[in-house]
Structure prediction request, 306 residues.
Amino acid sequence: MPINTDEPAYEPRRISMGLRIANLVAILVPFAGLIAGGILIWPFGFGWLYIALLIGGYLTTGIGITAGFHRFFTHKSFETNRVVVFILGVMGSMAVEGPLLNWVATHRCHHQHSDCEEDPHSPHAHGNGLWDMFRGIWHAQMGWIINHKAPNFTRYVPDLQKDRMLRFIHVTFPLWVAVGLLFPAVLGGVITLSWTGALLGFLWGGLIRVFFVHHVTWSVNSVCHIWGRQPYDCHDESRNNAICGVLALGEGWHNNHHAFPTSAKHGLRWWQFDMSWLFIKTLILLRLARNPRIPSLERQRAAMRT
Prediction:
């Protein structure tokens, strides 16, 4: 991807405790509301079927974002066949995080300007006051979707624009959103033979699943640029966060990723659980993917902070 050589060098920031606490509140309160909603609705028919629809939908669409939109389409970290490419594009679209070309262009822009002024979703560079801290967290978590300008496709995704199938997945984004919402409703209705089952399937496998995937994905934008360790010198505030590493299917090993953006494997240590890499590795074992990019131990050692 293009590099802007005129961009000023990144200067590391000292992240204040106020910013850390404000970010923690912004992350935990919505999850607390989600848990409370689950407890309250349980007596009215919520059960293991809807847990299965929620988890199944989360893993399917989450992998579509992490292994599909992110590692394959954005960073070309492995190769696969056209059928798998189409399926990954559909799975990622059902996560309702925006059409394919928009998602990839925005993320490539993030890497080019990470934690600098033109970064579309950095929690930094919004000021030093308490209100500024909350503004930065809101911006990184979800505000950037409202305020961010449309990415320049010609600059950031000329490779994807040339592919007719990918353009089709992009323009049919509303169709895949509808499929992702309606499928768990149909499944819940058929299994329970009731309209109540269909409604609860739509609620938990559809709407709440979308909320959960969104919140975890966006937490990588905010949490993983505020909380965590920085074993590699990436000239930005990207950090490894173990909680996000698990919940975000491997994306929370964010400092590793910024050090080696094209790596198909983000959990570079044996204890860094990376569900998305396990998915890619399974595709490789089934001969549905090939040539994964993984940095050598020599490159990893060379990039370590001194």
About this structure: Residues 17-303 form one domain.
